[in-house]
Design a protein that fits this description.
This protein is mainly α and 102 residues long. 51% of the residues lie in helices and 6% in strands. The chain has helices at 2-11, 23-30, 40-43, 56-64, 77-93, 95-98, and strands at 18-20, 37-39. Keywords: Exonuclease, Hydrolase, Nuclease.
Length: 102
């Protein structure tokens, strides 16, 4: 685990912004903290409840019109990362229109 943590620290500048879905789970698994995170499960909280998060697959379909996570092998981390980036970009572009929806 220490090797992985060290490798991540080497490639990530301290001020990098991490973008992902339920990042708390990834960071917890890595036993790491990071001050700059944009979590799509938080900024697109459709339930209004902190503990109940909307799936990335649902957010991608609803806000991007894209179907993801349909491959037989399960999640594709590259596909998930791309969807998170697109969702954050869309949120930044449409904040005014989406203020009541999200």
């Amino acid at each position: 685990m220490e090797d992985i943590q060290r490798a991540l620290r080497e490639i990530m500048p301290p001020d990098v912004i991490l973008i992902g879905h339920s990042l708390n789970m990834d960071l917890h698994s890595l036993k790491m903290l990071h001050p700059y995170c944009i979590d799509t499960s938080v900024i697109f909280n459709l339930s209004g409840e902190r503990a109940r998060k909307t799936k990335l697959k649902v957010l991608s379909a609803e806000f991007l019109g894209e179907r993801i996570q349909n491959k037989p092998g399960g999640h594709d981390s590259v596909e998930d990362a791309a969807a998170c980036m697109k969702l954050v970009q869309a949120k930044l572009e449409h904040t005014i229109e989406w203020v009541d929806a999200v």
